[in-house]
Design a protein that fits this description.
Shape: globular
Largest sheet: 5 strands, parallel
Structural class: alpha/beta
Order of helices and strands: EHEHHEHHHEHHE
Oligomer: single chain
Strand order of the largest sheet: 2-3-1-4-5
Length: 170
Amino acid sequence: MKSKDSPLLVIGAGRGGTSLLAACLDGHPRVRMAIEAHAIELFRGHNVPIHRIASLLDDRLTWFRDRCDEERSAHLPLLWGNKITTEQIFGLEEHNALNGTNNNIAVRLSEIMADYRIIFILRDGRSCLHSKMRRTGLPMINAAIMWSYCVRVYNSLRDAGALSAVVRFE
């Protein structure tokens, strides 16, 4: 069950305001926000061996949860949180590609992080796409694909009742 002391997980599109929201939360004296702690290495598989293809998704999610809990313990009594992007979550789609499955990655993430309060930030798609293209050099089609994945993650989390709050801007 989630309480006022439950840890936070901020999720949103890259270039979508996740860092700004995490910085605002981190500005509170009782809150310590991590920025993409463990998401790149575990979700996208950077330097992480695949032990079993069939359990890739659950292995990576469990490792992520364990590392988040370790960091949270190191920062007690502060309210700890982490911010991740939907592009990082997209790395977990490797499980579906390798196994020929269609697991809902966002829902599985919310199940593993069930006692975390998930805060989703949604930025206007036009601004997010332009920022991605300008700041990262992504072609428009790639930026649009990542934005549409962000919307898919948001819809999945909303439909699963996993969101504690939604922040919209622009």
